[in-house]
Amino acid sequence: MPKRTRIINDPSELVPLLQTFRSKEHKKVYNALTDDWKTTSELKEDMGFEVAPSIEILKKCGLVESQWHMPEPGQTPEKEYRSSYSKAQANFQCSLDDLSEILMLTFAPYEEIEGLVRELETLVIDGNHSMSSLTRALNKSALHVRSLAQRSNIISVMGQRLKVNENHK
After folding, report:
1. Which of 48, 89, 133, 145 is most buried (most C-beta within 10 Å)?
2. E strand or H helix that includes residue 28
């Protein structure tokens, strides 16, 4: 298992990390990937449930790496995954109000924040990628917008910009 440390510089990066480890399924998939490289089909067989959502959230918070698995001749190559970090270090400072907002957005049922997430996704898909213009359009703080983006499956935070994920274009 890699002994690398995931450094968290932005408090909004806590959103997918906390979501990952509050789910028994995601945690189980993460644990299975700490020992060896595994394909999604191997994981699904071992776990007994669909692992694609777990892989997606682990990728979103940067906890897994992937490579192509070279199968027997005549078979189709498949991606395999393993966990890339075994430790985390938080390196940020924020107000308790901001921290409480992050925690509320992290643990709120998706249905409660779906409207805001969909509005943000629509703005980004329509070409509004700048954090400053998104904060004005949504009338929310940059931290709130980044935290909402962390709850989305189709957009990613890239510094002061948001982008549509490659597999959702």
Report:
1. 145
2. helix 24-32
Enter the pTM of the model.
Answer: 0.82
Phi, psi of 6 (to 5 degrees): -85, 115
Query: 5-90 and 96-168 share one CATH topology?
Result: yes
**Sequence-ordered list of residues with C-beta below 8 angstroms from that of 42, at least 6 positions apart, any chain:** 80
Report whether 87 contacts 4 (CB < 8 A).
Answer: yes
* Overall CATH class of domain 96-168: mainly alpha
Cβ neighbours of residue 21 under 8 Å, at least 6 residues apart?
A: 27, 30
Q: What are phi and psi of 29, to 5 degrees?
A: -65, -45
**Residue at token pair 């992050």:** 102
CATH code of the region 5-90: 1.10.10.10
Whole-angstrom distance, CA of residue 22 vs CA of residue 107:
9
